[in-house]
Every structure is written in C-alpha cells, then in structure tokens.
Amino acid sequence: MSATPNHPLPDTTAVVIVGAGPVGLTAAVTLADAGVDFVVLDRLAEGANTSRAAVVHARTLEVLEELGIADELIGAGIVVPRFTVHDGPRTLAAIEFGGLPTRYPYTLMTPQDTTESVLLDRLHKAGGEVRRPYRVTRIADENNGVTVEYTDGAGVPGSLRADYVIGADGMHSIVREQAGIGFTGDTYPASFVLADVRMDWPIARDEVALYLSTEGVMVVAPLPDDTEPNRYRVVATVDEAPENPTVEDIQAILDLRGPGSDGKVREVLWSSRFRVHHRVADHYRAGRILLAGDAAHVHSPAGGQGMNTGIQDAATLGPLLARVLTGEPDTLLDTYETIRRPIALSVVSFTDRMTTMATVRPRPARMLRNLMLSTLARIPAFRYRLAFQLAELANR
Q1: Domain 55-110+188-277+358-395 falls in which CATH fold?
Q2: Where are the domains of the chain?
C-alpha cells in the first residue's frame, strides 16, 4: 500500500504529522476535513502490508462513522459478537456485546493493512497525501513554531517549519524523544508470538477465544477469509519466542493450550514475535509538540485496545488543533492531555490486570482465578461491565 507520488515538500505548513499508521492517518483526515494545511511524513517506503493490529472496537467504529468510513471497514471485516475465556476445554466466561448501547454491538476483526488502506483512501478523497520515505531527524520548538529536519529517501536532508507537530510515530517515537517527554512504565518478562494462520478450528467464527494455561495465555480470533479460507489470528505468550514462528511452533501452542486435538494449523500466512511494554508518556504536550497513539501509550495486547485508543486520540486532537489554528486560544490544546491521558492510564491498568490474571502459573492461584472468573461471569452486571469496557464505550 503506497502513497501518492511525492512532490517537493513545502517550506512551511500548519501541522506536521510524523507517522502514517492508523493514528497519523486519522489525524490527517480530521485536519483535511477542517481545511487545515498539513504534511504527513512517514519513514517507510510504503504502508502496512501485514495484519498486526486486527481488532476494531465499538467506540472506534463510532469515531470512524463520523469520518464516513465505518461501513466500508465493516464490509471488509468480520463481525464478532462474543468474547470467551477458557481453561483448556472448559469455558469460564462468555461475554456478549449484543446488549451494548451502540450501533456497533460487536468487535470487528479486520487486518491493520485493511484499516490503513481505508483511511488512506479517505485521506486522498479529502485532498491529502502521505510523503514517503522521510526520516525525521530533529524537531525543535523554537521562534514561535517548530522546526522539523528530515532526510528523504535519497538521503538528502531538508527542513520545514510548522505551527504544530503531532508525533504518531510509535513506541520508539523520535518526536517524543526530541520533545524530552518521559515514557514511564516497564516491560513484561515474556515475549509474545503473533501469527496469522490458515487452520481447522473447532470454535465458531463468531467469537474471540482467550485460553488460560500453565504454559501461558493464548488468544484465537477469526479474520476475514475471502482469499485465505479459515484464516485466524493467534497471539500467545512464550518465554522465548522464535523470531518467525512456524506451523510447528503454532501447532505446539494450540495443542498445549487449546480445547483439544481438533485444531490443525495448515499454513502460517505471517508471523512475528514482540516484547510488550506498559508505558504512558509523562505528558501529551510539550509546547507546540503533541503525541498520539503508541508514541503516548503502549500496553499489553489483552483486549485489543492499542490501535483503538490511538485512533480515538487522533480523532480528539485533530479537531482541537483545527480550532486553535482558526483563532481559538492555544490553551485549548491543554484539554487534549486532560481528556486522553487518564483514558490511557485506565487502559494500561485494565490490560495489565487482564495480563496478570491470564498469566498466573501456580496451581492454587489458577484454581482461585478460575473459580472467581466463572462465578463472576454468572452475574449479568459483571458481563455487561466487562463488555462495555472492552468496547471502549467508557471513552466517550
């Protein structure tokens, strides 16, 4: 997925967005719709071509509805109205999204490259584009503006001036680093396997299944399968994951943690490993520099909250910037951190609790966890509250 062919960068612009993943693209669309001049710089020669973040929750679909692309994304995904928790073949809890107060009472499973493609098409329709590949090397808030220095794909350096910069450039954000903003938190000890596979699977394709075991946690979720029949996402903790997990690696995880012998991996379509951090930026703003998405917060993949929280960041920040750039006080931007940072802290806390609960290994602790979870899951109010939180509807 490549961007529109580049023409020379301007010397000045109102906003520079660093990073063209779902978060940066969402910010760009909101600015384009408001008539704000902006430039999107991305270090990659082309956009995502792997699935990576694949969960889109109800609140994010509400945000994308405001941008006019929710229906298109839904048409490219698979609707999943249930979330279940298991210990081997035993079901501990079943959470239904159907009763939630939203037009989108479900989880949508769609690969990240699809989400980015839909957002990029929307940006093009609004008259915007992404400039690739441009590696930002320095950012300085100075002289009533921000200087952004970069190197283009040919290695030629350059710079431009902006009124504001949005850092949507991920966990290792150069924008956050240059702004001197701390990134407080820690790293989970286990590594994670992430794989898209084609497999036979005994669980219905209308649910995301979380499996708990002494070996670690595993999530299996259906993915759209028009071109790859029986396509699934598998995420699992592994003490030392291989760099590119194979069919045999994924099969071994399924056999140890899954519901039985019915799961059969036929092909690994894409796989990776990663370490998971739980960190939140100390501030979301340093003068004219602002952070969104993984540049501002990273956390466990439990619950599939990451990309969703980031898209919602961008959908909040873009309109605030547009209002300031059309004459409202600059102090309005302080409300961005006031609104969004507490949400990130809450998401990090929630996903950390889920991860800690899911990865306990001593048998007495596991038995107590299973008893508590299965007991609580019989209470309708608990099931509703968990579904409401997973769907991020509290973020309204």
Answers
A1: D-Amino Acid Oxidase; Chain A, domain 2 (3.30.9)
A2: 12-49+112-182+282-353, 55-110+188-277+358-395
8 A C-beta contact, residue 8 and residue 159: no
| pLDDT tens, N- to C-terminus, the chain (396 residues) | 444 445 789 999 999 999 999 999 999 999 999 999 999 999 998 876 565 789 999 999 999 999 999 999 999 999 999 999 998 889 999 999 999 999 999 999 999 999 999 999 999 999 999 999 999 999 999 999 999 999 999 999 999 999 999 999 999 999 999 999 999 999 888 788 999 999 999 988 999 999 988 888 899 999 998 888 899 999 998 888 888 999 999 999 999 999 877 899 999 999 999 888 889 999 999 999 999 999 999 988 777 888 999 999 999 999 999 999 999 999 999 999 999 999 999 988 888 888 778 778 788 888 899 999 999 999 999 999 999 999 999 888
- What's the token pair of residue 255? 């056999």
What Cα–Cα distance (Å) separates residue 357 from each residue in 56, 74, 216, 255, 317? Answer: 23, 31, 11, 21, 33
d(CA 351, CA 390): 10
Concatenating the DSSP letter of every residue in 108-122 gives EE--HHHHHHHHHHH
Query: Would you say 127 and 275 are in contact if contact means Cβ atoms under 8 Å apart?
Result: no
Domain 12-49+112-182+282-353: CATH superfamily is: FAD/NAD(P)-binding domain (3.50.50.60)
Lookup result for tokens 């708990």: 212
Indicate whether this model's pTM tops 0.90: yes
* Number of other CB atoms surrounding residue 235 within 10 Å: 20
In the chain, where does DSSP find H-type helix?
A: 22-33, 58-66, 70-76, 112-125, 174-179, 247-257, 306-325, 334-358, 363-376, 380-390
